[in-house]
Design a protein that fits this description.
single chain, mainly alpha, two-stranded antiparallel ribbon, 5% strand, globular
Length: 240
């Protein structure tokens, strides 16, 4: 029995960690166009931005845990805002990294996804994303947030288990393009909102209070990370 179980686990691991064929270039281009189509138009962005919020708040939560803080809950709202609450010192490196992780998480996740896709590890990307969503679901503290994460996770499960390699590849590339492109827009939106006198307690403002560095420099960091991730990740995805 133990031998059979070990053999099954080894088989699953080989499937997850193995490589899959790269899609044709036209598929990569088509998924890029599809991602642009849900990021650029304002009407579709109001809906698709929910997925970026999941990555944003997940970034806060993950870094909070990695820096030794106690994660108490995550809330996602229908206006695409979110809130991650953690306990620990209200100052210091851990708090700074946690606050900085939100706007940098989506593009960095996209960059990491692009790195996996360039090595042909499509299945690993899909399973890793599903695992992160399941872990995040445990910490969700409101109904809308739970629904959003469940629907997103269910999409990954359905694609991973019920579709063929070509569909899985197209889905994975679309997700990574979306993270890379969608990771650019929120910081610009926040900066525009602040210029009109809103969002006075944004991540950039919190970081400014924590570090005594002007909020404008934190916006520069957010823009630099997102744009460099887009350029680097996009280059990897297009170099088949």
């Amino acid at each position: 029995m133990n031998t059979i179980a070990s053999s099954s686990l080894a088989s699953v691991w080989d499937e997850v960690s193995g490589t899959q064929p790269d899609p044709d270039l036209w598929v990569v281009i088509a998924t890029l166009v599809a991602a642009l189509a849900v990021v650029v138009p304002q009407a579709l962005w109001r809906v698709s931005r929910n997925a970026i919020t999941i990555a944003h708040e997940g970034g806060h939560g993950l870094v909070a845990l990695l820096t030794g803080r106690t994660l108490t809950g995550i809330r996602l709202h229908s206006d695409t805002s979110g809130l991650t609450v953690s306990r620990g010192k209200p100052y210091g490196l851990g708090m700074i990294l946690t606050a900085a992780a939100g706007y940098t998480a989506p593009p960095l996740l996209g960059l990491g996804g692009a790195a996996l896709l360039t090595t042909g590890r499509i299945t690993l990307l899909l399973w890793a994303a599903t695992a992160l969503l399941v872990a995040m679901l445990v910490m969700i503290r409101n109904a809308y947030g739970a629904l959003t994460v469940v629907l997103t996770g269910a999409t990954f499960v359905v694609v991973s288990w019920l579709t063929g390699p070509q569909v899985q590849a197209a889905f994975a590339y679309a997700v990574v393009w979306f993270l890379l492109l969608g990771g650019v827009r929120p910081a610009f939106e926040l900066q525009a909102k602040r210029s009109r006198g809103g969002a006075g307690d944004s991540d950039a403002d919190q970081l400014s209070r924590l570090t005594h560095v002007p909020a404008g420099l934190w916006f520069f960091l957010f823009h630099a990370v997102s744009l460099c991730s887009l350029l680097g990740g996009g280059r990897w995805l297009l170099e088949l």
